[in-house]
Structures are given as C-alpha cells and as structure tokens.
Amino acid sequence: MKSKEKFYYSLTTYINYGVTSIVTTFYVPYLNQVVGLSLSQVGTVVSIGALFAILSQQFLVSKFSMRKNKKRFIIIHLCALIGMIVFLMSVNKTIIYFYAVLYGIIVQTIGNVYEVYVEEIAVRKNVEYSEIRKWDP
C-alpha cells in the first residue's frame, strides 16, 4: 500500500474514532444538564440506545458486507452521524426516546461498520490490519 493511501486510511480511522469518542463522552452530561433528564431517565435512554445498537449491528454489518460500493455506505453512515450530532442540539424530553433509538442504530454501530471496512481494505491491499489502525507515522 502506498504511503499516501495508508495516510488516508489512518486519518479517516482517527477522525472516525475521534468524533465517536467525543459524541459518546458528552452524551450523558448533555442529557442530564442541558436536556434536563434525571439520572434514572438518562440510564433508560442510554439502555434503549444500547439495545438498538445490539439489534441493528448484525443488520448493518450484513448489509454493508453485501454492498459493492462500500465507500458510499460509509459516507452515508458518517453523514448520518453528523446529522445525529446536529439533531442532538434540538432534542427535548418529548422526543428523547426516539433519539435514543436512532443514537443506538447510527452512532453506536459506526465503529463496527468501519472496522469491517478497514479490515476488508487491509486484506485486499495485502497490508497488516495493525498498520492501518496505528496513528503514528
């Protein structure tokens, strides 16, 4: 694999996990302090998101594996992730459970879908998987 391609895949992996970690880190404090949910309600919302992440993970990964144009699928999924971040700014107590379902399906599954993508690229380009995943040159 050319160093330019390796840099591209390493950078996109870093951005993907960076955005996901930022979103998941501030999700609970945001729900508690800004939306105004109690901690038990926050626990319920996070549990609903985790349940739908578990249920949708197999579906998304199988759909992703069957696609020929995997870059398009990844771009759509990342756009949905950005949309979820924007949608989070307008969440209130009445639609929080709907958001929790979408959060589980879109945000919590992006890492798994992306892992399948990077692993497939590593196999196709005959590169060690760990070379793409490490972020230093």
Which helices and strands, and how do they pair?
Layout: H1 3-35, H2 39-66, H3 70-88, H4 96-107, H5 110-125, H6 129-133
Helix pairs in contact: 1-5, 2-4, 2-5, 3-4, 3-5
Order of helices and strands: HHHHHH
Q: Fraction of residues in helices?
A: over 70%
- Rg is 17 Å
Number of helices: 6
Q: What is the averaged pLDDT score?
A: 81
Terminus-to-terminus distance: 14 Å
Report the count of strand segments.
0
Compute the number of structural domains: 1
Structural class comes to mainly alpha
Low-confidence stretches: none
Q: What is the 3D form?
A: elongated
Biggest sheet, in brief?
Answer: none
Strand content: under 5%
Organism: Clostridium beijerinckii (Clostridium MP)
Transmembrane segments: 7-30, 42-61, 73-90, 96-117
Membrane topology: Multi-pass membrane protein
Protein name: MFS family permease
Protein model, in words:
- The structure is a single chain.
- By secondary structure, this protein is mainly alpha-helical.
- It has one domain (3-133).
- It contains six helices and no strands.
- It has helices at residues 3-35, 39-66, 70-88, 96-107, 110-125, 129-133.
- Helix 1 runs antiparallel to helix 5, helix 3 (70-88) runs antiparallel to helix 4 (96-107) and helix 3 (70-88) runs antiparallel to helix 5 (110-125).
- The longest helix has 33 residues, at 3-35.
- The model has no long low-confidence stretch (mean pLDDT 81).
- This is MFS family permease.
- It holds the Pfam family MFS_1.
